[in-house]
Amino acid sequence: MMVNGVPRWTCRTHVARVVDGDRLEIAPLVHLPIIRDLVTDMRGFFDKWSRAKGRFVGERTRRDDFAVIKPATAERTAVDAGIECIGCGVCYAACDVVGWRPDFLGPAALNRAWTLINDARDTAGRERTRAIAGDAGCHACHTQGSCTTWCPKHLAPTAAIAGLKRVTAKAAMRGEL
Ligand code: SF4
Ligand code: SF4
Asked: What predicted TM-score, i.e. pTM, was given to this entire model?
C-alpha cells in the first residue's frame, strides 16, 4: 500500500517508522487498478512477468538427478541476489516509468527475468532475452533506482536491469535479437 505517499510492505512496516508527526495516510498501491478500498488488481503486474518469460523452463524430469550448481559462480551469485522477490509490487508502484508508459514491463518482472537468465538449469534464455529487449523492456528503464530504494526485501532491480541491458547488447551484436 501507499503510506504517506510512499509504497510500503504494510504488513511488516512498523507505524513508528513511517508516521509523519501525527499523520498516517494509507492508500492503495499506485499504477494498479483499484478494485475496492485498499485492494488493487495485480493481474497486469503478473501478466508482465509472463510477458518477460518469467517462468522457469528446465529440461530435466523428476526421474533425473538434481542439477549440481556451484554457489560461488558469478551467475549463481546474481540469481541469489534477486531470487527472494515476494511479488509485492512495491517497486512497481515506486517506478515513474511504469506510471508514464503502462506497457513497461517494470522492475519486478525484469528482475525475475534476470534471475532466470543467470540460472544454469534454465533453457529459455534466448527467448527470454528477446522478450525483455523490446521498447517496453529493460531499455525503457531510466536507472533512477526508486525500485531499489523501496524494495522491502532489499533487492536491487536496478542492478538486474543493468545486467539485462548488457545481455541484450551482446545478443544484438551476435545477431540474436
Ligand atoms: S531504476 Fe528503472 S525500473 Fe527501477 S524505478 Fe527507476 S526506471 Fe523503474
Ligand atoms: S523486487 Fe522487491 S519490491 Fe519488487 S515485487 Fe519483488 S520484493 Fe517487491
From this structure: 0.95
